[in-house]
Design a protein that fits this description.
The protein is α+β, with helices and mostly antiparallel strands. About 45% of the residues lie in helices and about 15% in strands. It contains three helices and four strands. Strand 1 and strand 2 form a beta hairpin. Helix 1 packs parallel to helix 3. The radius of gyration is 12 Å and the shape is globular. About 25% of the residues are buried.
Length: about 100
């Protein structure tokens, strides 16, 4: 998929994702100890990209985030993946 290709190209090392067999979402996993809810502010305020933090689905999913891809065209998905990757890198730099 377009989103998977863009994530492959842009996500930082240690960040992975799962593409479902069906549905309209991709689940991204941050490295252990990183919190998707903390990343959300960085992503929305400084990189103009959003997602649903994994804690919406359970307390054990703190380092997961859910991306929707059903409403966006290929260009928007590529831009979104690039922005998300930049937000993750910025968030990780603040933790270092």
């Amino acid at each position: 998929s377009t989103l998977a290709k863009a994530l492959d190209e842009h996500l930082p090392e240690g960040t992975t994702y799962e593409v479902p067999q069906g549905g309209y979402f991709v689940l991204v996993k941050l490295p252990e100890g990183q919190v998707a809810a903390d990343l959300l502010a960085e992503a929305t305020e400084n990189h103009k990209v959003g997602f649903l933090p994994g804690t919406s689905f359970g307390e054990k999913m703190k380092n997961y985030l859910r991306l929707s891809f059903s409403f966006y065209d290929a260009e928007d998905l590529g831009v979104g993946a690039e922005r998300l990757a930049a937000a993750i890198k910025s968030y990780q730099a603040k933790l270092a």
